Amino acid sequence: MLELRLVQGNLLKKVLEAVKDLVTDANFDCSSTGFSLQAMDSSHVALVALLLRSEGFEHYRCDRNVSMGMNLNNMAKMLKCAGNDDIVTIKADDGSDTVTFMFESPNQDKIADFEMKLMDIDSEHLGIPEAEYHAIVRMPSSEFARICKDLSSIGDTVVISVTKEGVKFSTRGDIGNANVVCRQNTTVDKPEESTTIEMHEPVSLTFALRYMNSFTKATPLSSTVTISLSSELPVVVEYKIAEMGYIRFYLAPKIED
Amino acid sequence: GPIQLSITEFYRST
Fold first, then answer.
1. Which of B2, B7, B11 is opposite residue A157, by nearest beta carbon?
2. Which residues of A touch B3 (CB under 8 A)?
3. pLDDT tens digit string along A32-57?
4. A106's torsion region: left (phi>0), alpha (psi -120 to 50) or beta?
5. B12–A127 CB contact, under 8 Å
């Protein structure tokens, strides 16, 4: 028996919107730790890891570890039927081949059940070791989304370079090239509007903008984004989900021939 | 142009 009641049901709606274009089918894993997902995109270039900790749910019952295979587009379709203020409960019986999403309006005058078929997904689970990153950039998520969108109208790849001067996002394409430099800026009143750069070593890496743009679909989940870079590793683009956990995107770099 | 690496080249299956 599994029963997870999430008062902020719209968090789940936002999570689905953030991952459904990157990943088609995925196993959601449920354990005493929380509700999680790890999946790669079809070309195995990017990986998404989601964690919603059990403490973040109003009610969390998970009698034994369960892995539920879901088509994310279908799940998103069902969650779109929940109101933004609705309480969402995820329910599944042991051994069942369906999952039920229950939506309750805040004043309990409307209750809806949406039952979705589960699927068997043979997915590869990867171990991601803790890493020391050469540079960690924390910036407003809307600013990062804007930069990715702007640069993708010029080129297909972005070079992210971190130096003492700041973080530079560069692209080049047929019509020309573009560079956006963001400097550390902690003087603004609100911490969510500041840019901080923690640099241990300068680093410069090249990534496909198509994936970066896809990651920015998670922008509604968090006002800030953290970009962790190391010269020999995939970049980690992390959106914290307040009081609940995170959604992390890992993207393998492009290297010169 | 540059070659796109795969995420599985960095992280191992568990």
1. B2
2. 254-257
3. 999 999 999 999 999 999 999 999 99
4. alpha
5. yes
